[in-house]
TrEMBL record, chain A:
Top-level division of the source organism's lineage: Bacteria
Major localisation: membrane
Gene Ontology cellular component list: plasma membrane
Full protein name: Sugar ABC transporter permease
Record's bilayer topology term: Multi-pass membrane protein
Span of domain ABC transmembrane type-1: 81-291
GO biological process: transmembrane transport
Localization of this protein: Cell membrane
Pfam families: BPD_transp_1
Cross-referenced InterPro entries: MetI-like, MetI-like_sf
PROSITE patterns given in the database record: ABC_TM1 (PS50928)
Similarity comment: family membership: Belongs to the binding-protein-dependent transport system permease family.
Automatic annotation (TrEMBL), chain B:
Topology class, membrane: Multi-pass membrane protein
Keywords: Membrane, Transmembrane, Transmembrane helix, Transport
Protein's cellular compartments: Cell membrane; Membrane
Name by which UniProt lists this protein: Protein lplB
Organism: Paenibacillus sp. BIHB 4019
Family stated for the protein in its record: Belongs to the binding-protein-dependent transport system permease family.
Residues annotated as transmembrane: 29-49, 93-114, 230-248, 284-305
Residues covered by the ABC transmembrane type-1 domain: 89-305
Matches recorded under SUPFAM superfamilies: MetI-like (SSF161098)
A biological process from GO: transmembrane transport
Top-level taxon: Bacteria
One GO term describing the cellular component: plasma membrane
Alphabetized Gene3D superfamilies for the sequence: MetI-like
Amino acid sequence: MTTTTLSRSKRSAADLLFDLCNTVFLLALLVLTLYPVLNTLAVSFNQAQDTVRDSTFLWPREFTTLNYSTLFQDGLIYHAFFISVARTLLGTISSVFCTAMLAYTLSRKDYVLRGPISFIFIFTMYFSGGLIPTYMLIKNLHLYGTFWVYVIPGLIGAFNLIVMRSFMEGLPESLAESAQIDGATHFSIFMRIILPLSLPVIATIALFVAVGQWNSWFDTFLYNSSNINLSTLQYELMKKLQSANMSVGGTAESAFASSKNIQANIVTPASIRAAITVVATVPIIIVYPFLQKYFVTGLTLGGVKE
Amino acid sequence: MSVTVERVKKHAGIKKSRSKWSKLRSQKALMAMSIPFVVYVIIFAYLPLYGWMMAFQNYKLGSAMLDNEWVGLANFRELFQDENFTRVIRNTLAMSLINLVFGFVSSIGLALMLNEVRKIIFKRIVQTVSYLPHFLSWVVAANLIMNVLSIDGAVNKVLVSLHIIKEPIMWLSEQHYFWWIIGASNVWKEIGWSAIIYLAAMTTIDPSLYEAASIDGAGRFRKIRHITLPGIRSIIVILLIMNIGHILDAGFEQQYLLQTPMVVDYSETIDIFVLKYGINLSRFSFATAAGIFKTVISVVLLLAANRMAKRMGQERLF
């Protein structure tokens, strides 16, 4: 009796130390992860001249929404926001639908072309034409300078296809078979049976595609940089970032420094950048908690390889 | 219909292929739902390979592909003699290796620590927060990183107040810090996300192993070393092998967005090189040659890794 309590108390002392260290480490990680985000939020709400004098910590010292109102006086940001939302919605819906439809055909074990088509797609995961040939292709297809360049080239990704296919293969085959006996076509089986049952995997893939669409700036940079009407939020932010990088100091300070001289200037490039950063991040933060439960499933599903 | 059946019976030797054809004919609906996408992928993924011819030509903008002067391997020769290109390869490999080592160590470490947390709520909070940066774009992340690393940013303030450095450092203007900044920001952005897969692997470890170990008097560290780590060994190996094929993908966005004119010598990767020569300077043939070099090396590495995986008895990749 005494020995067990003794060993238990001894064990718990070592355990306690371990847990303490572990908790401290993880708390430090929390701070390190969140600090940059919260600091930028504080800068975006802090009066710009005050930020120049001394950087904020976690809380705006002199609260103002001037950075945001200045940002939105520029009609371009509204438009860029609209384009970002449009490409995210359209790109996600079309991509998820097409990927699911193709995945359904490839999940049918009796489909003769199942093997060859799967191979054609999987091969693209490891092999690509590269930047320049793709750029030339987009030009030759007359997608250059259009909105469709955001949607069409990314319609089907091989990785997403495999994830969806393996999920659909896990569904009971008898469901589709009995529908087939009742005279349902493949398309209606897909629409009415497979699609509703695949909701978890569809949510996961939709999340991946939507985040990719929302975050993308390179295609705007490459194909639509001359067409300001098709600019996206991330691209506008990227331009602001580049102009800060290329200026004399090479870091954010130069932006501060140049604005120090102009007293009339009530917002600084840095505070505007902070404001756009927040605008570009908020939609993700909003959907994040709702989709969080799905992406762990998604990632483990992705681990299933054939 | 019956005629076909008879015929099939007669030519039993070609029965299989014939039945395949007739089966295919009955699968018109499936074909209608999949063939358009095959056409799509051929156009968008395979047709660009036609452009590879540019690398062996002296391509002039606006001319038809086959009308150009053929120059053989001249572009490749020039590429390997180019000092910029060798430097770019050095940068790519250096940053790739830093990312690989940092990434593996940090995410396995985080998974181990999270696995030891007893309070479910705390574990969930840490996880939720640590995934978050994965969903931010590199543009946003680069902005945040620039803020933190600026002259009066948090990093300098902390280091100065701890008397580790005397004066604030312009982190992003110093060549020698650039690789490590990329490595650290990669860890910051992806640590939580890449830990997911290890955590998932840890849940499959038999709990009775831990019980047996504690009866034998093993402490937490010993259990981690002798049970948890061996338990996720196969997933570590497979991910390591998969990463070998991407050794020339040090990334593009981070470097492109965080680089300043002062650090160009250390920040340019192969992808930035291709962009710069191809799109900005319109040297299409030269840039395509660099792109081909990267793809070919990647595929060779991947095939080698796949073979290695097979030999080691691991699940192969394809």
